[in-house]
Amino acid sequence: MHEPVKVRHCSFSPDANEVISCGDDKFVYISNVNHKCASLSLRYNTDVRWCDFSADNNRLITCGDEKPVRVVDVATGTVVAKLSGHEAWVTRCALSSDGFTAISCSADKSVKIWDIRNAKCTATLTGHDSWVVDCCFSPDGTKVLSCCSKANVKLWNATNGQLLLTCEGHTDWVYRCSFSPNGKAAVTCSQDKTVKIWTFETNLSCTTLIGHAEPVRCAVFSNDSTKIISCADDGIVKLFKWLPTVLKM
Questions:
Q1: What are phi and psi of 228, to 5 degrees?
Q2: Residues in Cβ contact with 190 at an 8 Å cutoff, skipping those fewer than 6 apart
Q3: Which of 213, 172, 165 is nearest to 189 (CA)?
Q4: What is the pLDDT of residues 164-182, one digit of tens each?
Q5: Positive or negative, the Cα torsion across 86, 82, 152, 174?
Q6: Does the structure show a pLDDT above 90 at 2?
Q7: Among 155, 193, 146, residue whose Cα is nearest residue 171
Q8: Are 197 and 189 spatial neighbours (Cβ–Cβ below 8 Å)?
Q9: What are the Cα distances from residue 61, in Å, to 48, 52, 75, 149?
């Protein structure tokens, strides 16, 4: 498995039978949860910053200090799409739920939308004034959320790349952004020690969650969209209960 260096990401496959991980040893590993040995290992030339499965378990997507984003067939380890176009290292990537579209974001300050079938970039989303740290699809695949190291969070149309909203409120680097599974809200976390919940259904609304004493590195919704868990450099993990009008910790 990984050498004793930084492992940057790990996650379960959608069916929970396998796990994927990547890191600064330049490897991506897929392992069955019932076995200690990797069932697939992929070697890269530079550090791998992110990796994830497709919704059907059949493909994975990877990105890192090598500028191309790669889509790989899990069964064979074959690269089925090499997505080239970013001008700096790629910080995050994701596949849409139907597996036909991918997004990626980069230190080149852009977010790109890709058609996996022909490995072509269909839209380049510009507007961030610093490198883009994270990006994600909405559950229905119609929108893209992105955040950057200059505190901005942006909501985009995933079909044509049009900027829909700029969410202002954080005062420092935004580390993560993600939608709630029901698609009705999004959560972000920041160097400014806060977690923010954004709703877009009518007008843009923001709820700020405080309590961490240090930068918040990750915040995500539960599968039922009723809770948020966050973790920070203060060594604390916090669980919040989220309802549209009520928030409890």
A1: -130, 135
A2: 151, 170, 171, 172, 173, 174, 175, 196, 215, 216
A3: 172
A4: 999 999 999 999 999 999 9
A5: negative
A6: no
A7: 193
A8: no
A9: 11, 5, 14, 23
